[in-house]
Each structure stands twice: as C-alpha cells, then as structure tokens.
C-alpha cells in the first residue's frame, strides 16, 4: 500500500459485482507491544459509507468524527447527500494543511453512490480512486491473496471469504496485525458482517 509499513495494521477494500467489501484486523499495536486486541478499524460514516483507517489511532478517530460532522452539515445545507468523490475531495482538502506534520492518517472510503466507490485519502496528500486497496504493514500479504483471486464476478459469499482469507494471511505473516477480522459489505447501505471472527 502507499503508506509507511511501520503501522501495525491490515485494512483492505475492493469492488466486485455485488458492491464493496471492507475488511480489517482488530489489533492496535504500539511499537512491538499489542496495546489493545480489539480495535475497530472500519467506521460507519453514513448510511452509504464506511471508512477503513490506518495510521495513528487517535488521528484517525478525530478525522472520522470531523468527516461525520461535515457530511451531516452538507446534507442539512444542501438537502442531499455528499457523493463519495465529494467526501474524498473534502477530506483531502481538510488534511492538506497538515501535510509534512506528524498527523498520520490513511483512510479508504468504501461507499455507494449511483455506483460503487473506493477512494484512498492520506495525510501525505494522496487521493486515489481504484477497485482494490490494502493499507498497513500486512498489505503486501493481503495483496498477494487478492491479486490471485479477485474477480468482478465473485458472489457475495466468495467476496467475503476472500476478504477474510486476505486479512488472515496478512495477520499471520505480520507481527503487528492480528486477532479478529471486521467485515463490512456496502451497497445502498452498509452491513456489518463479522465483528467477532477469531483468528
């Protein structure tokens, strides 16, 4: 992934014919120490959007809260939802003044507008749209699994199974990631699929 690999985490998102899948491990690490074995790295932002987070836990939580507030304000002012692309642009714009500072945030927006959207936004200034992103120290292993098996035509069950397998492989190869897997399926509204799947 386009992010320093020192941050112990594996998050991923991908698009398939049935929507968007977001998955992440749930361990928080501080140095080589497992600080908390159950941290949720996927946050529902709106009925049509979840974000996966990697980087500094406190920074990510703050920016997710800011994003939730801004999306609500936009909807109140304009009587319509802010698009996923609009949300990514807004987040990138708000993060821009912090480029080159210690703010460490990498968020992948996994959402549904008229279509499925997957956009990666980082505090280093990156804003990338794609069909597949994996971020964090376990991401090379996750990409290894996804690159071999990801197809547009996957069924929902196959997509869920693939996401789980990718996080599982990454967390077993990476000392900083691990414990449980969070899984969300996003179409016109998100569904939390697995919150307690023990690795």
TrEMBL record:
Q: Where in the cell is it found?
A: Cytoplasm; Nucleus
Q: Which GO terms describe its cellular component?
A: cytoplasm; nucleus; proteasome core complex
Major localisation: cytoplasm
Instruction: Quickly give the catalysed reaction.
Output: Cleavage of peptide bonds with very broad specificity
Q: Does the keyword Protein biosynthesis apply?
A: no
Quote the PROSITE patterns the UniProt record gives. Answer: PROTEASOME_BETA_1, PROTEASOME_BETA_2
Q: Which GO terms describe its biological process?
A: proteolysis involved in protein catabolic process
Q: Where is the active site?
A: 9
Among the GO molecular function terms of this UniProt record, one is: threonine-type endopeptidase activity
Q: Does the keyword Phosphoprotein apply?
A: no
**Keywords for the protein's UniProt record, in alphabetical order:** Cytoplasm, Hydrolase, Nucleus, Protease, Proteasome, Threonine protease
In terms of InterPro entries, this protein maps to: Ntn_hydrolases_N, Pept_T1A_subB, Proteasome_bsu_CS, Proteasome_sua/b, Proteasome_suB-type
Q: What does the UniProt record say this protein does?
A: Component of the proteasome, a multicatalytic proteinase complex which is characterized by its ability to cleave peptides with Arg, Phe, Tyr, Leu, and Glu adjacent to the leaving group at neutral or slightly basic pH. The proteasome has an ATP-dependent proteolytic activity.
Family indicated by similarity: Belongs to the peptidase T1B family.
Q: What is this protein called?
A: Proteasome subunit beta
Q: Which organism is it from?
A: Oryzias melastigma (Marine medaka)
**Organism ancestry:** Eukaryota, Metazoa, Chordata, Craniata, Vertebrata
């Amino acid at each position: 992934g386009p992010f320093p690999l020192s941050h112990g985490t594996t998050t991923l998102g991908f698009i398939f014919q049935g929507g968007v899948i977001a998955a992440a491990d749930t361990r928080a690490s501080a140095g080589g120490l497992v600080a908390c074995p159950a941290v949720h790295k996927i946050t529902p932002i709106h009925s049509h959007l979840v974000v996966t987070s990697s980087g500094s836990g406190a920074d990510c939580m703050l920016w997710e809260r800011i994003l939730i507030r801004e999306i609500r304000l936009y909807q109140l002012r304009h009587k319509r939802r802010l698009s996923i692309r609009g949300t990514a642009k807004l987040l990138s714009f708000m993060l821009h003044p912090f480029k080159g500072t210690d703010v460490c945030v990498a968020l992948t927006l996994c959402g549904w507008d008229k279509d499925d959207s997957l956009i990666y936004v980082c505090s280093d200034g990156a804003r990338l749209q794609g069909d597949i992103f994996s971020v964090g120290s376990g991401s090379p292993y996750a990409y290894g699994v996804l690159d071999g098996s990801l197809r547009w035509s996957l069924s929902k069950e196959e997509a869920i199974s693939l996401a789980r397998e990718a996080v599982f492989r990454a967390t077993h190869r990476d000392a900083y990631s691990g414990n449980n897997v969070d899984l969300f399926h996003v179409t016109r509204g998100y569904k939390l699929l697995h919150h307690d799947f023990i690795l």
